[in-house]
């Protein structure tokens, strides 16, 4: 599974369609007490390890030279530099849920070698998620992501947009994401058979460019970054999903709960980057429209 599948699958549960879900706190008997380093310990060591998702362009991916690149990789570099620390990158393969990612990257360690990071990026800033993961502090929102519909105007014509315009067309989605669940459930499932499911958003966007599908539903940032120079050929729409309660979400950072001083320091760095335009510049370099979260004074 890709990184955003767990995020969006989590969002597209009953709560995404306006139905309440219980919030269940959990305890973990297998916690390793040595996981987590405070800011003084990191400064004594001189380095910080920051985790991010594999295969998640334009946020984090391997470039043609085999180096890690992307928006989140640049943010990791900004954080390390601002703290005066060397940077160790920790790419992770996304688990079935974001809760799995928090466990494996932040508060316990990976199941194979128990390696862990001081900080995980691109975490949904959600009170419900934090309540379920009491050994983690979630903070530092740096971007607001929105679900989007990218369509080929040469194939889908009309005036004001409505879902009726999609009738008779094939729509691409990544398997088991919010877009997939939405098309399967909305309007009595009328778009279920017209949905073409791909293993990744990159494949869906490539199919849109190749003319194999007429539209794609996915996070706006991924669509824009993946389209790259082809962006001008397509129309990108947000807020066009009637009946869907969750269409946008903030992403930020997570640390283990015993490293909250690191969280406070990173939160200040992120907030400053949002306010002074540094964050917008990072997103702009990757062709992604930046949506700033609300940052408290």
Automatic annotation (TrEMBL):
UniProt entry tagged with the keyword Signal: yes
UniProt cross-references to Gene3D superfamilies, sorted A to Z: Periplasmic binding protein-like II (3.40.190.10)
Keywords from the named record: Signal
Keyword Signal: yes
Residues spanning the membrane: none
Ranges where the Solute-binding protein family 3/N-terminal domain occurs: 48-94
Signal peptide: 1-25
Protein name as it appears in the record: Transporter substrate-binding domain-containing protein
Taxonomic placement: Bacteria, Pseudomonadati, Pseudomonadota, Alphaproteobacteria, Geminicoccales
